Amino acid sequence: MSEFFVTFALFVVIYSPARSNENTDSMTVLTQSFDVLVVGGGNAGLCAAITARRAGARVLVLESATKDFRGGNSRHTRDIRYMHRAATDYVTGAYTEQEFWEDLRQVTGGETNEGLARLTIQNSEELGDWMRANGIHWQKPLRGTLHLAQSNLFMLGGGKAMMNAYYDTASRSGVQIAYESEVSELRIRDGEFLSAVVSGNGAAREVEAKAIVVAAGGFEANIPWLKEYWGNAADNFIIRGTKHNQGRMLKELLRHGGKPVGDPRGCHAVALDARAPKFDGGIVTRLDSVPFGIVVNKEVKRFYDEGEDFWPKRYAIWGKLIAQQPDQIAYSIVDAKALPHFMPSVFPPVEADSIAELASALGLDPKALVRAVDEFNRATRPGAFNPGSLDSCRTEGLDPPKSHWARPIDTPPYYGYPLRPGITFTYLGITVDERARVIMQDERPAKNIFAAGEVMAGNILGKGYLAGFGLTIGSVFGRIAGREAARRATA
Amino acid sequence: MPLPELVKEGERQMRICNACRYCEGYCAVFPAMELRRTFTKGDLVYLANLCFDCRDCYYACQYAPPHEFAMNVPKLMAELRADTYREFSWPAILSGLFKRNALAVALITGVSLVIIFVLVLGFMGRDILFATHLGEGAFYRVVPYAAMTIPPLVIALYGLVAFVIGAVRFWRETGGALSEVIDLKAFWRATQDAFGLSYMKGGGAGCNYPDAGFSQSRRWFHHLVFYGFLLDFASTSVAAFYDHLLGWQAPYPLLSWPVVLGTVGGVGLVIGTSGLLFLKWQSDRDPAEERMRSMDVAFLLLLSLTSMTGLLLLALRDTAAMGILLVIHLAVVAGLFITLPYGKFAHVVYRYAALVRYAIERRRIDAPGH
What we know:
Radius of gyration of chain A: 25 Å
Helix content of chain B: 55-70%
Radius of gyration of chain B: 22 Å
Number of strands of chain A: 19
CATH class of the largest domain in chain A: Alpha Beta
Structural class of chain A: alpha/beta
CATH topology of the largest domain in chain B: Fumarate Reductase Cytochrome B subunit
Order of helices and strands of chain B: HHHHHHHHHHHHHHH
Largest sheet of chain B: none
Distance between the termini of chain B: 36 Å
Largest sheet of chain A: 8 strands, mixed
CATH superfamily of the largest domain in chain A: FAD/NAD(P)-binding domain
Number of domains of chain B: 2
CATH class of the largest domain in chain B: Mainly Alpha
Distance between the termini of chain A: 63 Å
Number of helices of chain A: 14
Shape of chain A: elongated
Number of helices of chain B: 15
Oligomer: heterodimer
Helix content of chain A: 25-40%
CATH topology of the largest domain in chain A: FAD/NAD(P)-binding domain
CATH architecture of the largest domain in chain B: Up-down Bundle
Number of domains of chain A: 2
Shape of chain B: elongated
Strand content of chain B: under 5%
């Protein structure tokens, strides 16, 4: 018995020092001096920090969230779009620069800077290997994402696992990280960054650095800012990602004469389950039931063709559609036969054996819903139902029509989901050049100010969305910004 | 958490997982989950026993605490497993042994030690116990043939019956017809998965064990324990064959099959159990479950003691310490085997059954068009 305890004790003694002590005391860190200051600890910020550190710079990352919530919106991601010349274990085929560019041109309707877009696409080719080398593991495309199997790489465990890997890599390579450290003000003179005012743990400090990378995201969590464009409707918006994307750094850059890019009103808005948490609900609160039933507003009126196109191509217009309805709420109504055709949702649907009961349970006028469903059912024409194609099940004489997957809602139990607009990100950003330098109003680049990620994504993605492309922009420009900032700071 | 509430909590968490699916690549739990939209108690019990507690999904989870969804799948699964082991154990009256498992295991082993010691002292006497015995049949001069063979046989048969009953209960609870079990291909697949610990690989990344870093060390230590145990089992079987069929009685020479297999297995067990205990000691408590922890530690310590007393007995079998070491070793072995159906060993049965079920189900998962 004693032998055992001796062995055990030996193990303990030998291995104990191997445990790392990762927690950084942010107040101590802030007094050191740095070459490159990275504001924002999401994907773009960490790509920049790791790259700058490898180039020899002393790097500090300021993350406004706690360690548990670090990573901004990147913690909610799951896949990244990248250019590649052949199939691998994880993608089913090649995705060429031309295909990539065509997809981007189509979704943006041309609202893109072709030079920066092509740079992003070309540089994305290295990302698969680079990310793998920095601790990210891949997995086969998730079930139900066939449309992305050729173009996108899926992170094993998703975006939080990716961010864990990046934080681990960054700390190991000597990047300093301060959590709960929010930058409230940038000191900039004649396009030259001097210092940042950082508040954290109840105190404010000024941190100087030779260059800054702003990777602090958009402003979608800033409800008063959203209200400037959406009025009080913005109170009913759900923010899918971090509550920390307040747009403070974007505002600071604009205040100091940075040149804006993108539609200030623009935001990526999808249909979410209305019961979702206000912030950080991430992927699970989306609802894919819309094409398989009807959607009515609180006045029990349909307002758009639910079966216009495949859901992945249409889900991003539904946020805006719902935002335009009274009280920014809508209800997706389906029957039992629709249930197997969409991803299970995070909140159980409201369930009833009749349409009238369902209406009562949802707080809608029962007579009106019965009438709306009857009217819809009468308008459906027989067709061959096929969720995998733009099928022949459509309505006739109905306004608005339902063009596909229109089957009578007649099989109890009936299910209802309340829907709200969910904001993924905003499009307004800061203009950059191909070296990730922030461009000022006079078209000249700032000397030592670089931007990466959502704060500059509007240069490339002026409208629409391509799945996994936010991470592409963030990774490519994060690396460019890190490289350029380190070059500037260590020159 | 009482079982009905645990099932409700399990359904809540699985519903969130099922709407996310980011962890699909880590193990079998998530692909199996995706075949379902609702989760009965049986479904949850099945998923819980497919879980190898690698904890990758916990650290990867965007909804882990302090997020308001408070997702903690490894802990949930461990709680469900602890309940499974208790609920399916036979006879029901002994299921209380799972409640304070470490204490029960220690007491049973201690009582075994006292009983064997008293019996040897009473029937054989001090002089025999503390004498040096050499040559063929030396062990039987301390503990007679019948005493050394009949009780272990009874204990082993009892354990076998308990586990068969447990496995049948598990299979029924998880919604399977018994006829489904006659599926050699599924058994072969499950056996490969069990022997390779396929789902302790974290989809190639390793386990987040003992902390958020990825490591394969837990899997390798487990391999040492598992194969060490099998080698010791083989050693005992060969020895039984020599003894009962060929009439060669122990102790066997150092370069004989029973001694070589037993020594290699014993060393593997000592290293493996120490490693696993060390990792467990270092591991993050947040995704852990207390009952399961104490069950794990009790079983690992007992396995470790079994192999260490066995090795010690081998080393000192030609000295006067042999008698007392034999008594201690037999007591530890008795404690191990009596508590086999009422402790962590149960995972072998239920995990394997879950792997068989998964092997049957995965045909649906792998089918084209799914």
